[in-house]
Amino acid sequence: SAVISQKPSRDICQRGTSLTIQCQVDSQVTMMFWYRQQPGQSLTLIATANQGSEATYESGFVIDKFPISRPNLTFSTLTVSNMSPEDSSIYLCSVRTLLEQFFGPGTRLTVL
Amino acid sequence: SQKIEQNSEALNIQEGKTATLTCNYTNYSPAYLQWYRQDPGRGPVFLLLIRENEKEKRKERLKVTFDTTLKQSLFHITASQPADSATYLCALENSSASKIIFGSGTRLSIRP
What we know:
- The complex is a heterodimer.
- The radius of gyration of chain A is 13 Å and the shape is globular.
- The mean pLDDT of chain A is about 95.
- Chain A has one domain: Sandwich (Immunoglobulin-like), CATH 2.60.40.10.
- Chain A has strands at about 5, 10-15, 20-25, 30-35, 45-50, 55, 70, 75-80, 90-95, 100-105, 105-110.
- Chain A contains no helices and eleven strands.
- Chain A starts with a strand and ends with a strand.
- In chain B, a hairpin with a 4-residue loop joins strand 7 and strand 8.
- At the A-B interface, strand 5, strand 9 and strand 10 of A face strand 5 and strand 10 of B.
């Protein structure tokens, strides 16, 4: 299994600013994912971040808006840049071990 | 485009009865189908995975079926309890296990 922590757990930000979300895993994992979940909606994959390579972004998400770092096998960051109210959402970090996927508690972001 | 449909309306079940949730998908041939539980303010928690060549899988009070011809999975909770109240997400995964896409979830309420 994997235990994932995220910081911050929640934040309220002004439009035009940026927020960096940290994800820490208690074991080394190759595959790490960032998801977004808007209220009442399902999870949407933003990008896959594997250590030692550039993040792979899904359609509709770009590196300039959501830069990701993956410096080692236990840590990653997602930055939400130049925020607008439409970025208000829960951002979840996730890792994969064998055929099981684990999720962090999420970061609830509100953009005013 | 790929689409996953789950009961959009909440499901209310009397304690002790069997709860059955449905997941239908189109334009996709998943190698694996997964079910997750999500409580308010928390990340999803993995419950069960079933492979495309498996018809049924059980885990304690949970049972999942997978019909690749109908493109449907059923998720059953027998002897339901109020503690089973949560949102349940269906997720599909391709054969390379590189990406999971999620349904919007079904909110289940078990009344005492």
